Known about the structure:
With 341 residues, the chain is α+β, with helices and mostly antiparallel strands. It has 12 helices and 11 strands. Helix 3 (94-100) packs across helix 5 and helix 7 crosses helix 12 (326-340).
Amino acid sequence: MQYTRREPWEGQHVDLELVEEMDEEGFETDEDDEFIEMEEKETKPNKRKRRKYYRRAPVAKKNLTLDWLKSQLNVRDVHRKTLKLLAQHRIMNIEQLLYWHEDFGQQKRAKALMQRHLNELVYYYLVNKKDHIHHKFLDGSKRRTIFAALGPLGSKAVGWQEHVERIRYHTDGSVSINNRYFHISRVCDLSIITNEVLKEMGASLEMWVVECRKSIVNHDNNLNPDAFAMIKDSVTRKKYTAFIEFDTGAEDFRRTEKFPELTKKFNRYKEVKEWDGWYKKRVSIESENKFPYVFFVTQEPRRMKKVPSLLKERVNESMVCMVEDYAARLKEFIERMRENA
């Protein structure tokens, strides 16, 4: 996929001086989360040796405070925008940052300028990044890219109470990245597809909240959708909502008949749908569909035989589709909502 359009993100405001409340759930990770070790190695002896360590300001860990940051860096809107995006999407590659970051998207040397910008944020502990990750993009192409996540000061700057190192630097110079980075990156890809489809249909993405267990759902069963979307339709002047789940095929791996893990997840959706507390929430009251439509987007073809009926039995307003069909299914959803409005 080539990211050609760049629009300002309409998510939560991030200000380093006036910290507002933000979703702290981004720092809640499963206890079993692992990290993939990726050490920088020299692959071409004839070229200049790549620096093993990322440059950072020499400062003791105990002195890493926002007061220290203000004494070292003139924080500008361009910095705040990057931190806001990383807070919203957790982990992003440089192509995704360029799509959403309007300050870079229209320039000829946008990628080089973004790399320099990230290096500055890394130096002041606002961002952690991992270079040279071989990544498979939605269009099937494979190439090296850069992934970035909030650093220790970046977490403080956006108002989160604790920092989880989604990208971790080690004293030996190696770099590790949370093993869910591919899944999180695909959810960000879906936000881009959603935004493109909505602009084409005369609608806009009013909210996109990832890992929304506490910030949106807040049910005792701990349902944690990959993303919650609120759509504003300029044609009908109505709002629609949806939950989006991206499936890599890791849950119930290689199963084709019974899916115990997916069944548990779908049962949680049913419980939330039957919960009176949901319909008292602002997102439900403002939405034309009082319970969000559930999109289960998968890259595993073996899901398509049994999983659609498994989800429909629990949440009728739902769709299971392959990732390449998501844009078409989203258009159909918008058209149905307009007919019923």
